[in-house]
């Protein structure tokens, strides 16, 4: 009976006749949770914050990072969210199994697109201007630097891959939001120095989960050297798509 109940739960369609206030509430709730988590992680990086603030131009850079977070998450993100919910997300109903497939599909599509876009930022000289601001946080990386990106980068590298993933997977609002939550939270984790060696790292790259997922060590290595580990924030596609690179970022 338990097996039948589980199967019934997975194949039972969900109802998506949601009022706008409910969907807006989901977004506001997510933003609140994300900013609370950001404050917690940032507080654990107080030493790194002090190092940055003690440098010449550090205070203005830190303020610029805070403004970028507010601009991207509060001013740019919600309108694009509205577009996705209104014009992209299917009205369903989807089963739980279909929702799980949609979430996984969005994560894969977003990860692949981000890998190629991010790699292009570094390899194509004419695109570097979009990514330059994010790499002002190289030797001092903070959780707040996760979304400290230019408007162009936020739209083209952060938002559009999710939009394309939701379109390809014919995802509903729940699937899209769930995938977005995973992407945003893991993006904070890979920019949090004290998680280096604890969140799946490059030291575990020959076994699961370190080989599959982007670790904090991987992404901090990218910030320090800018020659490898272009994948972020969930799946580590470099292992397959950029296999000519060693962990040090040098060509074999």
Give the key terms.
62% helix, 0% strand, globular, disordered C terminus, mainly alpha, disordered N terminus, 252 residues
What does this structure look like?
The chain is mainly α and 252 residues long. It has one domain. It is 62% helix and 0% strand. It contains ten helices and no strands. Helix 3 (46-53) crosses helix 4 (58-88) and helix 5 (96-123) packs across helix 8 (173-189). The radius of gyration is 19 Å and the shape is globular. The termini are far apart. Residues 1-15 and 246-252 have low confidence and may be disordered.
Topology at a glance:
Elements: H1 2-11, H2 20-44, H3 46-53, H4 58-88, H5 96-123, H6 128-131, H7 151-169, H8 173-189, H9 216-225, H10 238-241
Helix pairs in contact: 2-8, 3-4, 4-7, 5-7, 5-8
